[in-house]
Amino acid sequence: MLLEIKDLHASINGKEILKGVNLNVDKGEIHAIMGPNGNGKSTLASVIAGKEMFHVDSGEVLYKGKNLFDLNVEERACEGIFLGFQYPVEIPGVSIASFMRAAINEQRKYKGLDAMDPFEFMKYMEEKQTLVGMTDRLANRSVNEGFSGGEKKKNEIFQMAMLQPTLAILDETDSGLDIDALRIVAGGVNKLASKDNAIVVITHYQRLLDYIVPDFVHVLADGKIVKTGDKNLAKELEAKGYDWIKQHEGLE
User: Which Gene Ontology MF annotations are present (predicted)?
Assistant: First the structure.
C-alpha cells in the first residue's frame, strides 16, 4: 500500500479538525475526496504534505511503509509527494525554468544522483511542456506572476509532470476555473495518471469528475470519512447535496 492513514486526528490552534480519518491509497488509483467547506479536506492534504501550522494529535500515516511524520516537508517532496495548491503562490523574479531545475536537482541529490545538466534539463522540460500543453510564453515567465487562475493551475500540472510524483494531491484544483481551463487541467491529470503513481483529487463539485474519473470517491464530513463509493457517489452528492450525507450518516 502506498499511503495508509489510520485514525488520524489533527488540529490547528487547539481546534480539532480531523477526528479519526482512515484512508488507503495505492499505486494505479485515482481517489476523489469531497465534502462541505470547513470539514477537513484541505487540512488532510496539508498534514500529508507536512505544513507545520497543523498539529497531529494522534494516529498514524504510512507512506511507502515509512512513518510519514519522521520526514520533514523537503524529505516528503523528495520521496515523491506533490501538493497542488488551491491558491498557487506567485514567486516574482524566479523563472519557471529556474524553479523547476532547482526542484529536480534537489530530488536527484536526495537520491544520490548527479544534477541534470542544462542541455538535458531543457530537453526534458520541452518534452513535459508538449505533454501538458504548456506554451513557451508561460514557461519563460516568473512563477505564477500575473497568471490567470487557469494559467496557474496549468503551471501546477506542468510542475507535476516535471517532478513525476508517486503521490499527487490536488487540493481544489478546479477552484475558479472556467469550463475550458477545467478541461485542459483535467486532460493533463489524465495524461499523468499511471500504474506507478496515485492521484488524490480534493473537490467540492462533481463537474471535475466528469473529466477525471476516480476509482474511489470519499466523503469527508465532520473531520472523518463517512462514506466511500465509486464515481456514482459523486453524482448522487450532486443531486442530493451534502445534507443528505449528514442525515444518512447520522451527523446531525
Answer: ATP binding; ATP hydrolysis activity
pLDDT in tens, 209-250: 889 999 999 999 999 999 999 999 998 888 888 887 766 665
For residue 137, how many C-alpha atoms fall within 13 Å in the half-sphere facing its CB?
6
Is 102's pLDDT higher than 90? yes
Look-up: residue for cell 510542475? 159
- Taking CA atoms, 170 is separated from 94, 155, 173, in Å, by 23, 13, 6
| pLDDT of 8 | 98
- Mean of all residue pLDDT scores within the chain: 89
Distance CA 122, CA 113 (A): 18
Give me the residues paired with residue 227 across strands.
219
User: Which three cell numbers, joined as nine digits, stand for 249?
Assistant: 450518516
For the chain, the 3-state helix, strand and coil shares in percent, each to the nearest 5, are: 40, 30, 30
Which of 88, 83, 87 minimizes the C-alpha distance to 163? Answer: 83
